[in-house]
Design goal:
The protein is mostly helical and about 50 residues long. It is built from two helices and two strands.
């Protein structure tokens, strides 16, 4: 990220690989709290048996 001294602002380069990595990290974080539906059914069935 080079600063452009002539105009006084920073220019940013778009990096598709970096964007995909951030998207992957966000989805991994989001999905880490999700229980698989089949696992949820198994837990519910176990609780019904108790």
């Amino acid at each position: 990220m080079d600063k452009n001294p002539e105009k006084g602002y920073q220019s940013y380069a778009y990096d598709d690989q970096g964007t995909m990595e951030v998207s992957r990290q966000i989805m991994n974080s989001y999905n880490s709290g999700v229980i698989d539906p089949s696992e949820m059914r198994r837990i519910a069935e176990q609780r019904e048996e108790e």
